[in-house]
Amino acid sequence: MTEITNTAKDLPPAVQRFILHWGDMGGQWGVNRSVAQIHALLYLSERPLTAEDIAEALHIARSNVSNSLKELLGWKLIRRVPVMGDRRDHFEAETDIWDMVTRIAQGRKERELDPAAEALRACMAEAEGDRRISPVAINRLKEMLDFVEIVNRWYDQMLRVPKGKLVALIKMGSKVVRILVPGGRKGSGTAD
């Protein structure tokens, strides 16, 4: 049982380590460290926490907690939950790892891939009518657009695959190549 208490020093070392590591990983992914740490704390908490609980546990300013909670709510990684007898907002994290990863991937796609595809389409439309742009540049823009659109279509298809089948597909790893390519591909550099 992991009870989240009021101060960081009261958090078990493994919980502290996870919160710090999740915060560092968030920073590497372009997510504010405080946002990631709050998400980690809520993910491991057995009960919904108030903003005050979070601020105390992580020694983070209350205003920073409020802004971070808004961002996590926007990503749909946490939700407000009512607690009987308490008028304050309480928060809990999505704990289904597949749902959590799907929401993160969906958010990243909407914020990064979709605008990239739109920008590349606009570049292609402009480039095709401009004689000053070399065929090489046009071809490279087209290849990049094709790649981004393939990734977008793949992602949309993967969202429709039932979780159990998606897990099985992921677990297969490079064995999928044997199914797709008769006789498999020897020497492809991929591990089984």
Provide key terms for this protein.
192 residues, mainly alpha, Arc Repressor Mutant, subunit A, 2 domains, extended
Could you give a short account of the major beta sheet?
3 strands, antiparallel
Order of strands, widest sheet: 1-3-2
Give the topology string: H per helix, E per strand: HHEHHEEHHHH
Radius of gyration: 22 Å
Q: Span from first to last CA?
A: 37 Å
Number of strands: 3
The CATH architecture name of the largest domain reads Orthogonal Bundle
Please state roughly what percent of the residues sit in beta strands, choosing from under 5%, 5-15%, 15-25%, 25-35%, 35-45% or over 45%.
Answer: 5-15%
> What form results from the Cα inertia axes?
extended
CATH level 3 topology of the largest domain: Arc Repressor Mutant, subunit A
Number of helices: 8
Name of the CATH first level of the largest domain = Mainly Alpha
Roughly how much helix do the residues carry, as a percent range? 55-70%
Give average pLDDT, whole number.
89
Residue windows where pLDDT falls under 50 for at least 5 positions: none
> How many domains make up the 3D coordinates?
2
Strand-pairing-aware structural class = mainly alpha
